Amino acid sequence: xxxxxxxxxxxxxxxxxxxxxxxxxxxxxxxxxxxxxxxxxxxxxxxxxxxxxxxxxxxxxxxxxxxxxxxxxxxxxxxxxxxxxxxxxxxxxxxxxxxxxxxxxxxxxxxxxxxxxxxxxxxxxxxxxxxxxxxxxxxxxxxxxxxxxxxxxxxxxxxxxxxxxxxxxxxxxxxxxxxxxxxxxxxxxxxxxxxxxx
Length: 198
Description:
- The chain is of the alpha+beta class.
- Helix content is 22%, strand content 38%.
- It is built from four helices and twelve strands, in the order E-E-E-E-E-E-E-H-E-E-H-H-E-E-E-H.
- The protein has a twelve-stranded antiparallel barrel with strand order 1-2-3-4-5-6-7-8-9-10-11-12.
- It starts with 6 loop residues before the first strand and ends with a helix.
């Protein structure tokens, strides 16, 4: 994927099904993400843009709603690209996800500072002050090579009233195209899951 970073993610407001627009640094839409409603197993379709004329990928949970479900990525030829899996108990305190290829972890996504999420949850319950929490407290998620502290990508929630905007930066120019592709799909699924958690 030859994307021009940083990438901007924004959620569509007032939509029944979660929808995400992804634009590159020039403002060109490069991906459109739509989560299917009323599915026992979560399912997400990813298109080249919001016309939905060209589907690029699909993401499907391996089981009915489960805190530790694995989300598998496939392209339109049906080829398995990889998967992302939330680490159940670990994620109660700090959101932690494994990025898998052939069921082997090769990257992880981890919330940088879990106190930010807790502060955001507390402030959002306070009248008037809660409106500003989206400007004051914005979590960051780090993508690292498995077993190392090497950050290869970073996702940051941007200041906004509705908490609907995020930015992805690429920290390692040596990423292979396939690695970048799997990481971006993992980040997109993680954002959908973390927004469900609040």
